C-alpha cells in the first residue's frame, strides 16, 4: 500500500457522515501503521479514555522495577566483593604460613650443612677417608 494521505476530498454530507468517514480513515491509518499487538493496545487506550493514567502506572512500575533490579545488583556486587576480600585475606594467611615454613626449613638446611662440614672436617682430621 502507498503511504496514506490525510487529505481527501470529502463530498458534502451531513455532519455524522463526515465523522464516520474520518473515523474510518483513522482506523485504516492505524491498520497500515501499527502492528496487530500495538493496535490492540491503541484500542484499549481508546476504551479506557486516554493514556495518561496508563502511562503513569506503567512509568511508575518501570521505575519500581528498575530500583528493585538496581538494589539486587548492588547486593550481589557487595556479596561478591566481600567474598573476594575474604579469599584475598585467606590466601595471604596461607602465603604467610608457607613463607614462615620455608624460612624455618632454610635455617634447618643451613644447620645441616654446618653439621655436615664439621663431620667432614673431623673425618679428614682423623684420617678416615673413603
TrEMBL record:
<keyword id="KW-1133">Transmembrane helix</keyword>
<dbReference type="InterPro" id="IPR028099">
    <property type="entry name" value="DUF4577"/>
</dbReference>
<feature type="region of interest" description="Disordered">
    <location>
        <begin position="36"/>
        <end position="57"/>
    </location>
</feature>
<dbReference type="Pfam" id="PF15145">
    <property type="entry name" value="DUF4577"/>
</dbReference>
<keyword id="KW-0472">Membrane</keyword>
<protein>
    <submittedName>
        <fullName>LSME1 protein</fullName>
    </submittedName>
</protein>
<feature type="transmembrane region" description="Helical">
    <location>
        <begin position="64"/>
        <end position="89"/>
    </location>
</feature>
<keyword id="KW-0812">Transmembrane</keyword>
